[in-house]
Amino acid sequence: MIKIKTELPIEKAIDRLSAEVxxxxxKINYESLVGKVNSKKVSxxxxxxxxxxxxxxxxxxxxxxxxxxxxxxxxxxxxxYAKLFVFLIASGxxxxxxxxFFDKHTLPIPSMIIDLIVVYVFWFLFKKSKKRALEDxxxxxxxxxxxxNS
Length: 150
Known about the structure:
Strand content: 25-35%
Distance between the termini: 23 Å
Number of domains: 2
Radius of gyration: 21 Å
């Protein structure tokens, strides 16, 4: 659970953060925050032009007032397209494994080798993206703290 505190009133904090957040990835030309900010929900991710990260971390949270202090609380999740990608890869691999395993006319070995290659490529991409995701999380928290406490 991430908690970012600020002395600003909740309306002012929402206004200040929403002024710095772009609504679409296609509107940016420098490293920035993209997402939605309103009184019910905050959804943010880091966008860098001409760079991709398959496992883009997304901050999901909301503003709350506790003891006269405004707090942005939230958690990390993955973007919907990363979840869809994982689902499609996993379901395709399971389908080929079961289809070829129960097919009496062919040997399952070639399709298992293909599945293992796909798993290796997926694992490699995941490891490569993991480091970038950690950097993204730190960058988002620091950027939001600077916006709300400057």
